[in-house]
Design brief:
Length: about 180
């Protein structure tokens, strides 16, 4: 097993748990479909898009990854927030909540902080561990693509703003993945 295969299996396992949690959560949402709203399906689509982007990015850019505790921690800090979000985004008992959009909004700050963490952890890892450098333009692009929406949604607690922001986040990630 190469160093990359070792790293990718560790990273992929953690991302796979998040993807499985979202799939299971979508199954639960199906049972409560009359109260689902918009935010949870959009958040699920955003999380799945992030997972795909990270898998693809890791495959493309880390073929020569040195396996070390530091690189494994970077992978952990990139993938683990998706597991956290995929676990807390769905209520344990959908019958206890009138509107699942309101359920989402009640813990959206944790979700937004967790969804911003992988991008910044990956950026720090690329600079510190993998000796890559970002141009000011690349940093601005990364912030606009992956940091601005979670930052706005972290502070703005309006349901309509979250619905629009999540839809925009999914659209931006899809555009980025397929351009």
């Amino acid at each position: 097993m190469s160093a990359f295969e070792f790293y990718f299996s560790f990273f992929g396992l953690i991302l796979g748990i998040a993807v499985a949690n979202v799939a299971i959560g979508f199954g639960r949402l199906w049972r409560a479909r009359e109260r689902v709203g918009v935010c949870l399906p959009l958040l699920g689509a955003w999380l799945l898009s992030h997972a795909v982007m990270n898998w693809d990015s890791t495959w493309d850019s880390l073929q020569a990854v040195p396996v070390s505790p530091a690189s494994l921690f970077v992978g952990l800090f990139v993938a683990m927030p998706y597991v956290v979000v995929s676990t807390v985004m769905f209520p344990d008992d959908t019958d206890r909540h009138g509107s699942l959009d309101e359920f989402y909004l009640s813990h959206s700050r944790l979700v937004m902080a967790a969804m911003a963490t992988p991008t910044f952890a990956g950026m720090i890892g690329y600079v510190v561990i993998f000796n890559q450098r970002y141009t000011p333009q690349a940093l601005l692009d990364l912030f606009l693509l992956f940091g601005l929406i979670p930052l706005v949604l972290f502070f703005w607690r309006n349901l309509r703003v979250h619905q629009i922001g999540l839809a925009l986040a999914v659209a931006i990630l899809m555009w980025r993945l397929f351009r």
